[in-house]
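Milestone 3.1: sequence recovery, worked example.
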């Protein structure tokens, strides 16, 4: 995926035709997401309008996306699939697809064309990174910091996270190796273009963990995307990583003394997978919802509530102002030119291949 593709998306729908209602569709769905501001944006942009159009349908939310791979493996073993649609990052979608736990989709059959006439396959383009993945957003993982806890020289580079002398205090990092290992190598002198080649080696993994060792005693480890914004709002950490949309919420919506540190933000993709093994009625309902929820207008609508770029090219021109604040959302997108001067493109193929092994090594290091 090219940076210019993501930038075009961030700068990047019309009402879709009503879904063709099939017979024998389930009257309930369990949607799995990440909680917090992101899930709220999905509810407001996708689920609530769908339920309004289909008053016989009820939606239940499960906030277990961070455990999606393990839980779907367990459900599959038990032969009891209780989720209907699951929001996952691209690397997890690739793993689930490879393991036969996610259903393959045909973009031009299962998704609507763009409102500009483009086929779904062309509209989503390079973001269709797996046969099972239905893209929704481009987002980034980046850092926020307390403006009242950094003195007269606020941080401008990601390596400030490792500078305990200039910026004393607790940091919040996600309790997994992804992104942490990349930032650690970068701040230990590895060139950005070499990060994944180095991380593929035992020596590179040890180098990253050794760098993380230098701040380990000052880290608060988080699992849910809402954790860091709350830690920042409470003044319990001086800086912390999380998704850019969560930081937008705490900065713009909650008016907390927090600012963005965009340097070396990590671009990634997020979207839906349909679990393999749904009965016919649930599958029919989910497919109907997915067509609606991923049309041009709905993906643009989500950007009214959170600063993530829509995954359809046809959605980008429709991104406007925040629904409540009335502010222009484009400058708050991770791919805005001012925000994307130094970025890292998340290598989902690398993590699909190495995730289990590096996860085990990282968790062992955490336990020491």
């Amino acid at each position: 995926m090219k940076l210019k593709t993501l930038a075009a998306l961030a700068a990047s729908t019309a009402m879709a035709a009503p879904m063709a209602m099939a017979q024998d569709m389930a009257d309930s769905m369990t949607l799995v997401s990440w909680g917090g501001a992101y899930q709220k944006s999905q509810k407001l942009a996708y689920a609530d309008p769908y339920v309004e159009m289909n008053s016989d349908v009820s939606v239940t939310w499960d906030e277990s996306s961070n455990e999606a791979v393990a839980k779907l493996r367990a459900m599959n073993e038990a032969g009891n699939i209780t989720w209907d649609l699951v929001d996952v990052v691209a690397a997890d979608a690739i793993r689930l697809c490879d393991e036969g736990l996610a259903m393959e989709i045909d973009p031009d059959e299962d998704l609507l064309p763009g409102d500009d006439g483009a086929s779904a396959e062309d509209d989503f383009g390079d973001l269709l990174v797996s046969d099972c993945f239905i893209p929704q957003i481009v987002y980034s993982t980046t850092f926020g910091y307390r403006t009242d806890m950094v003195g007269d020289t606020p941080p401008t580079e990601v390596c400030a996270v490792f500078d305990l002398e200039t910026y004393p205090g607790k940091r919040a990092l996600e309790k997994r190796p992804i992104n942490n290992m990349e930032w650690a190598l970068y701040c230990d002198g590895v060139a950005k273009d070499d990060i994944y080649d180095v991380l593929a080696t035992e020596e590179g993994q040890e180098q990253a963990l050794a760098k993380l060792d230098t701040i380990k005693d000052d880290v608060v480890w988080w699992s849910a995307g809402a954790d860091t914004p709350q830690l920042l709002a409470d003044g319990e950490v001086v800086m912390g990583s999380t998704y850019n949309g969560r930081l937008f919420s705490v900065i713009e919506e909650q008016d907390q003394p927090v600012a963005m540190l965009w340097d070396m933000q990590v671009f990634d993709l997020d979207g839906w997978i349909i679990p393999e093994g749904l009965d016919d009625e649930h599958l029919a309902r989910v497919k109907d919802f997915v067509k609606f929820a991923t049309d041009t207008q709905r993906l643009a609508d989500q950007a009214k509530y959170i600063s993530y770029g829509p995954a359809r090219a046809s959605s980008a021109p429709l991104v406007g102002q925040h629904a409540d604040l009335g502010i222009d959302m484009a400058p708050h997108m991770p791919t805005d030119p001012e925000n994307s001067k130094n970025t890292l493109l998340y290598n989902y193929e690398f993590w699909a291949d190495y995730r289990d092994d590096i996860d085990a090594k990282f968790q062992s290091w955490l336990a020491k």
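Confidence is low (pLDDT under 50) at residues 1-22. The first helix runs from residue 3 to 11.
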